[in-house]
DNA sequence: GCGACAG
DNA sequence: ATCTTGTCGC
């Protein structure tokens, strides 16, 4: 199991983190359609936290895009690299997520993130940031509309409506299940919005959330439990004998 | 100034 | 994200 420390030079303040976003934002590629939905492999990434113990666990799960069966998976555990600040989520998740991706035995191809890409106060959310750092095509599928506005999409699966920052479309609210709250899709890096929506629908044959994020969520929680269990056992072993 | 705010 | 039991329903 890979263990990750906070990378050298990682931003320590909100000001530094925002400056990094402003600098890297220009490297996002928006004029590529990305891989065709339903073909090749699609990787989901997610992270679970134990702030008390300063632990983060990340998982990367590779699915066959046609069958949605698991092809490969990897996890990594690390130290919390940044506090949760709306708009700066990437600085909290990326080091451990990258370690998990690096630990995969095969190329990640398209990466589906649990959060946003372009739909971000500075148009550089987690999915875009991860895409720029890895060079991989990425999209973001979030569970909440963040600060953005949208009309309620048509009630049937496939219904969508623009996700708006003022009048600018930064993503789409997409209904993945009939009559169920939509998910919020935005482009990360090297994928078009229409393609991101098609991928999201291809990954939701049964549940609201993409199979990629469901699998990654389950795996990173398990990895965190195991890491905590290991640490707790060590603490007990190393602790002074109680009276 | 206050409240909201991906995970 | 995380704290948390049972419960209603397909």
TrEMBL record:
<feature type="binding site">
    <location>
        <position position="46"/>
    </location>
    <ligand>
        <name>Mg(2+)</name>
    </ligand>
</feature>
<keyword id="KW-0227">DNA damage</keyword>
<keyword id="KW-0378">Hydrolase</keyword>
<dbReference type="InterPro" id="IPR007581">
    <property type="entry name" value="Endonuclease-V"/>
</dbReference>
<keyword id="KW-0963">Cytoplasm</keyword>
<feature type="binding site">
    <location>
        <position position="114"/>
    </location>
    <ligand>
        <name>Mg(2+)</name>
    </ligand>
</feature>
<keyword id="KW-0540">Nuclease</keyword>
<keyword id="KW-0234">DNA repair</keyword>
<keyword id="KW-0479">Metal-binding</keyword>
<comment type="function">
    <text>DNA repair enzyme involved in the repair of deaminated bases. Selectively cleaves double-stranded DNA at the second phosphodiester bond 3' to a deoxyinosine leaving behind the intact lesion on the nicked DNA.</text>
</comment>
<comment type="similarity">
    <text>Belongs to the endonuclease V family.</text>
</comment>
<keyword id="KW-0460">Magnesium</keyword>
<dbReference type="Pfam" id="PF04493">
    <property type="entry name" value="Endonuclease_5"/>
</dbReference>
<protein>
    <recommendedName>
        <fullName>Endonuclease V</fullName>
        <ecNumber>3.1.21.7</ecNumber>
    </recommendedName>
</protein>
<keyword id="KW-0255">Endonuclease</keyword>
<feature type="site" description="Interaction with target DNA">
    <location>
        <position position="84"/>
    </location>
</feature>
<dbReference type="GO" id="GO:0004519">
    <property type="term" value="F:endonuclease activity"/>
</dbReference>
């Amino acid at each position: 199991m890979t263990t990750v420390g906070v990378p050298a030079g990682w931003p320590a303040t909100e000001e530094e983190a925002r400056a990094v976003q402003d600098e890297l934002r220009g490297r996002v590629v928006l004029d590529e359609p990305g891989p065709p939905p339903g073909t090749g492999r699609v990787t989901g990434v997610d992270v679970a936290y134990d702030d008390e113990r300063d632990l983060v666990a990340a998982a990367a799960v590779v699915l066959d895009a046609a069958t949605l069966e698991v092809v490969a998976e990897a996890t990594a555990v690390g130290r919390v690299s940044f506090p949760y600040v709306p708009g700066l989520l990437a600085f909290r998740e990326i080091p451990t997520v990258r370690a998990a991706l690096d630990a995969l035995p095969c190329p990640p191809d398209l990466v589906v993130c649990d959060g946003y890409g372009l739909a971000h106060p500075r148009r550089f959310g987690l999915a875009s940031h991860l895409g720029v750092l890895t060079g991989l095509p990425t999209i973001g599928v979030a569970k909440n509309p963040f600060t953005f506005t949208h009309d309620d999409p048509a009630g049937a699966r496939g219904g969508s409506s623009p996700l708006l920052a003022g009048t600018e479309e930064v993503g789409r609210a997409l209904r993945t299940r009939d009559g169920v709250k939509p998910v919020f899709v935005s482009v990360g890096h090297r994928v078009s919005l229409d393609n991101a929506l098609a991928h999201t629908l291809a990954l939701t044959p049964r549940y609201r959330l993409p199979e990629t994020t469901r699998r990654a969520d389950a795996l990173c929680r398990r990895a965190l439990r195991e890491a905590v269990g290991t640490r707790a056992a060590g603490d007990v072993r190393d602790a002074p004998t109680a009276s």
